[in-house]
Amino acid sequence: MDYLQYFDIFDEIDREEPPRKRKFYKKRFDPFTLEEKDFRMKYRFSKVYMRKIVKLVQRDIEPQASGGGLSVELQVCTALRTWARQEVQDDAADIHGLSQQSITNICRRVALALASKAAQFIRMPSTLEEQEQVVSGFRNICGFKQVIGAIDCTHIKIKKVGGDSAQYYINRKGFSSLNVQVVCDAQLKIRDIVAHWRGSTHDARIFRESQIRQRFENGEFHGRLLGDSGYGLTNYLFTPVQNPRTAKEKSYNKSHILTRNTIERCFGVWKQRFRCLLLGFSVSLENVKLYIVALAILHNIAIEMNEGIDFLEPVISEDNGDQQVLREGLDSRSGQETRRLFIETQF
């Protein structure tokens, strides 16, 4: 009965685990092997800037220990390339050997790490010395005194929102958007940002319900904002004179326009750096709000590091149309008197 021994062998074979399928990871391109010129053309930033961002978020997005883990460098380069060049995500995935879902996860991971540092990079000047430095920057433009910030809103296009609230995201130009409020300084740095209001919301309401307005009401700043005629005139927010008559009023308006133009330039440079802000987002609404704050931080760091934009495509500043509204009840009496005295003594 020697043949019975083969049944024992068959039992052992049945008990053996099937061989594991070997994992094959896509070959990933190392961006830092590129020449500096090629790196800037592909990623729109210098290697020095990119390494600065890597260092900033390194502790928040440490790579996984497994063999498929992504380096922090690759994650940062992937996210910035996706935002800056507004590439279709699977195109960027092909470049770096990553799946489309991986690109989405990476962008959110990097954005979360950046947004957690918002208070460090997006802030109004607090000390008297800092405030005077900002005021001086605006004064150097054309002599307009006591300005600590220029304010306006810009629409960031989003994909169509479903549900009962969909109509409230459609702006006056007919597309779905977030209406994002920004305060900038003379160096085009973003000093304050509100990135959650629906596209149909008026600029004046966004400011009226913002924390920055309350801080001005509380007297935190020794200076004022400049806004277009869509805002209400107050002691701390000056708007243009409607139908100027005197030479002084005309001179005030001219100076106001030139000084307030910094916010239009800020929007232009911001969107020039990150084309996704210009062309719009196709990701979830939650991620759009997160990305906007992260991109404001990246913009400010780029200004601090003197990252040039000469090689980028120019962006035509959008016309916000000043959102003309009825002035009755919008301008405060104290604001009118304060502006009148300012014009009389400064112009």
From TrEMBL:
- Does Membrane count among this protein's keywords? no
Q: Does the keyword Hydrolase apply?
A: yes
**Cleavable signal peptide:** none
A Pfam family it matches: DDE_Tnp_4
Tell me the compartments it is located in.
Answer: Cytoplasm; Nucleus
The record describes the protein's role as: Transposase-derived protein that may have nuclease activity. Does not have transposase activity.
Q: Name the family.
A: Belongs to the HARBI1 family.
Identify this protein by name: Putative nuclease HARBI1
Biological source species: Parnassius mnemosyne
Q: What is the lineage of its organism?
A: Eukaryota, Metazoa, Ecdysozoa, Arthropoda, Hexapoda
